[in-house]
């Protein structure tokens, strides 16, 4: 049975906040990003706790979805309508042979990196063009999200549950 690893989702959901503190620090890209985004120090002031809490919730949604991007076994389960009880014997045999195939940090990171290039970049670029933002703005945000979801996908794919215990693959 395919188990959802809520611990991996929670840990992965924290990654965007940690990466954001680093990436958007004034000594990294923060000053340039603020200028390109049309923000000022004054505009950035104020209560941030709500922003951080809602960001964590939204990051958990992203982490939950990244399971479908990085863990192929979810795709196999989708072939039987999500209910293993309705599956044919061939599905059971397939899962017995390939149940933990490609469950590694590297594999999850690769698929998430590809999602960053082929999904996140176009999404951010389209918004930025209509908002009349610069390519510098586009690349700062695209690189942040691509690196961030690469790490998140690695965590989600590489940290799996077996018999109630969670393992991190060594591959």
From TrEMBL:
<dbReference type="InterPro" id="IPR013879">
    <property type="entry name" value="DUF1761"/>
</dbReference>
<keyword id="KW-0472">Membrane</keyword>
<feature type="transmembrane region" description="Helical">
    <location>
        <begin position="46"/>
        <end position="69"/>
    </location>
</feature>
<feature type="transmembrane region" description="Helical">
    <location>
        <begin position="6"/>
        <end position="25"/>
    </location>
</feature>
<keyword id="KW-0812">Transmembrane</keyword>
<keyword id="KW-1133">Transmembrane helix</keyword>
<dbReference type="Pfam" id="PF08570">
    <property type="entry name" value="DUF1761"/>
</dbReference>
<feature type="transmembrane region" description="Helical">
    <location>
        <begin position="109"/>
        <end position="130"/>
    </location>
</feature>
<feature type="transmembrane region" description="Helical">
    <location>
        <begin position="142"/>
        <end position="162"/>
    </location>
</feature>
<protein>
    <recommendedName>
        <fullName>DUF1761 domain-containing protein</fullName>
    </recommendedName>
</protein>
């Amino acid at each position: 049975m395919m188990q959802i690893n809520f611990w991996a989702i929670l840990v992965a959901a924290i990654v965007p906040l940690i990466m954001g503190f680093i990436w958007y620090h004034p000594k990294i890209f923060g000053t340039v990003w603020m200028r390109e985004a049309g923000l000022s120090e004054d505009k950035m002031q104020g209560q941030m706790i709500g922003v951080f809490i809602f960001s964590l919730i939204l990051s958990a949604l992203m982490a939950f979805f990244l399971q479908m991007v990085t863990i192929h076994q979810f795709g196999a389960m989708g072939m039987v309508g999500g209910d293993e009880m309705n599956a044919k014997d061939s599905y059971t045999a397939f899962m017995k042979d390939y149940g933990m195939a490609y469950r590694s940090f590297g594999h999850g990171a690769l698929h998430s990196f590809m999602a960053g290039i082929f999904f996140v970049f176009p999404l951010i670029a389209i918004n930025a063009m209509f908002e009349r933002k610069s390519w510098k703005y586009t690349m700062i945000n695209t690189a942040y999200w691509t690196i961030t979801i690469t790490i998140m996908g690695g965590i989600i794919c590489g940290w799996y549950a077996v018999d109630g215990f969670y393992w991190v693959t060594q591959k």
